[in-house]
């Protein structure tokens, strides 16, 4: 990726802000990385901590990596990319703060290939590895994308969102026959 902040080698909780003129907290330090006001960095890769990544008005690609990350696109047509199942486990799930269905995407293609499973959109887990569900918790008004990677009818990979996610927003997800974009 070009125009990318890559902090994947760090394990501290980081605050990465791609807003022109903003500073970020990297490697356990505060405000140690800054972006000039006339510079646009489009992409960011977090590390193994619970990172907070904020994009900008450009079309960002944001990779939280491992840890319970909080990701905010902040405008533009954004892609939230997941490279491995460990990037958003059930017990340390990422939170997408401003996901916009029909505009933003969640890219699971690399994670799916790495885990060796085909992701299939289903209404409930069937016992097949790769079953992927999208649900809303009415008590919290949170939306969830859950994946059973092992076929045990339990969520192994989980993404939370404050806004709806549609199956058509997910790259690498097979839709049932008769589902149209």
Outline the structure in words.
The chain is mostly beta strands and about 180 residues long. It has a single domain (about 5-170), classed as 2 Solenoid (Alkaline Protease, subunit P, domain 1). The chain has one helix at about 110-115; strands at about 5, 15, 25, 35, 45, 50-55, 60-65, 70, 80, 95, 105, 120, 130-135, 140-150, 155-160, 170, 175. Strand 13 and strand 14 form a beta hairpin. The longest helix is centred in the middle third of the chain and has 7 residues, at about 110-115. The two termini are about 30 Å apart. The mean pLDDT is about 95.
In short:
The protein is built from one helix and 17 strands. It is mainly β and 181 residues long.
The assigned structural class equals mainly beta
Task: State the helix count.
Answer: 1
CATH class: Mainly Beta
Q: Give the SSE order as H and E letters.
A: EEEEEEEEEEEHEEEEEE
Q: What is the C-alpha radius of gyration, as a whole number of Å? A: 16 Å
Q: Could you say what the CATH architecture is?
A: 2 Solenoid
- Beta content comes to 25-35%
Low-confidence stretches: none
Helix content: under 10%
Keywords:
single chain, 181 residues, mainly beta, Alkaline Protease, subunit P, domain 1, 9-stranded mixed beta sheet, 1 helix, 17 strands
Layout of strands and helices, then pairs:
Blueprint: E1 4-6, E2 15-17, E3 23-24, E4 33-34, E5 43-45, E6 52-54, E7 61-63, E8 70-72, E9 79-81, E10 94-96, E11 105-107, H1 109-115, E12 119-121, E13 131-137, E14 142-148, E15 157-161, E16 170-171, E17 173-174
Parallel strand pairs: 1-5, 2-6, 5-7, 6-8, 7-9, 8-10, 9-11, 10-15, 11-16, 12-13, 12-17
Antiparallel strand pairs: 3-4, 13-14, 14-15
């Amino acid at each position: 990726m070009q125009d990318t902040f890559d902090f994947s080698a760090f394990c501290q909780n980081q605050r990465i802000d791609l807003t022109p003129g903003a500073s970020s907290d990297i490697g356990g330090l505060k405000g140690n990385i800054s972006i000039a006001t006339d510079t646009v960095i489009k992409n960011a890769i977090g590390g193994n901590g619970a990172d907070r990544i904020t994009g900008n008005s450009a079309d960002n690609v944001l990779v939280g990596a491992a840890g319970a990350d909080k990701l905010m696109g902040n405008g533009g047509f954004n892609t939230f990319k997941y490279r491995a199942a460990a990037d958003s486990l059930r017990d340390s799930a990422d939170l997408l703060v401003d996901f916009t269905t029909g505009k933003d995407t969640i890219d699971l293609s690399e994670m799916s290939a790495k885990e060796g499973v085909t992701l299939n959109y289903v209404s409930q887990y069937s016992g097949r590895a790769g079953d992927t569900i999208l649900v809303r918790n009415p008590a919290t008004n949170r939306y969830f994308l859950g994946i059973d990677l092992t076929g045990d009818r339990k969520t192994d990979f989980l993404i939370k969102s404050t806004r709806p996610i549609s199956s058509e927003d997910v790259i690498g997800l097979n839709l049932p026959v008769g589902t149209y974009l």
